[in-house]
């Protein structure tokens, strides 16, 4: 991958492109297929290149510190070391989608381990079979993995508790609660 030099003009242009992709109501930034964004005006800017991702994270830190949801689908990401200590920059970040990337091992995900993730999407990555268990070990509080509810919704748990109390049914009959 070519080394990309980022000057102040490109940084300003990137800021505008990122702000255009940011949804302030949802506090969500969608960077799906970022290298193909027509607003980059022919500039090659691949998030898989660590210098580019680092620059983007710096801009997001400055312009969108309240970020809660980050979508990085389809960017050919292989390692995530640039995300080390990202929890300091984005303590509210609770949802990340890394769908359709090139992540091959769980070790890469450990750079995100201190984020309070409730939702993570890793579909269509060449991860080893059974990786989901390791992911749940890293984030025991994860609620949604690959668009599948992995822990019961708190409201649903309260409802089940009330049903159990009113009916006298034993908890053993409810596998997931």
UniProtKB/TrEMBL annotation:
NXF1/2/3/5-like leucine-rich repeat domain residues: 21-135
Gene3D superfamilies with a match to the protein in the record: Ribonuclease Inhibitor
Family matches, as SUPFAM superfamilies: L domain-like
Signal peptide from the UniProt entry: 1-19
Organism the protein comes from: Drosophila melanogaster (Fruit fly)
InterPro entries referenced in this protein's UniProt entry, alphabetically: Leu-rich_rpt, LRR_dom_sf, NXF1/2/3/5-like_LRR, NXF_fam
Annotated protein name in UniProt: AT07692p
TM segment ranges: none
Key words of the record: Signal
Pfam families membership: LRR_NXF1-5 (PF24048)
Domain of life of the organism encoding this protein: Eukaryota
């Amino acid at each position: 991958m070519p080394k990309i030099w980022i000057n102040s003009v490109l940084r300003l242009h990137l800021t505008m492109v990122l702000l255009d992709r940011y949804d302030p109501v949802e506090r969500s930034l969608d960077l799906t297929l970022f290298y193909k964004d027509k607003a980059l005006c022919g500039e090659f800017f691949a998030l898989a290149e660590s210098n580019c991702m680092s620059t983007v994270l710096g801009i997001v830190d400055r312009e969108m510190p309240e970020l809660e949801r980050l979508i990085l689908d389809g960017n050919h990401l292989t390692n995530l070391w640039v995300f080390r200590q990202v929890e300091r920059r984005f303590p509210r970040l609770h949802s990340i989608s890394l769908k359709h990337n090139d992540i091959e091992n769980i070790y890469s995900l450990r750079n995100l381990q201190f984020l309070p993730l409730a939702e993570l999407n890793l579909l269509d990555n060449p991860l080893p079979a059974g990786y989901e268990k390791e992911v749940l070990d890293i984030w025991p509080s994860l609620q949604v993995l690959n668009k599948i509810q992995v822990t019961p919704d708190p409201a649903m748990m309260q409802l089940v508790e009330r049903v159990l109390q009113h009916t006298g049914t034993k908890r053993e009959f409810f596998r997931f609660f």
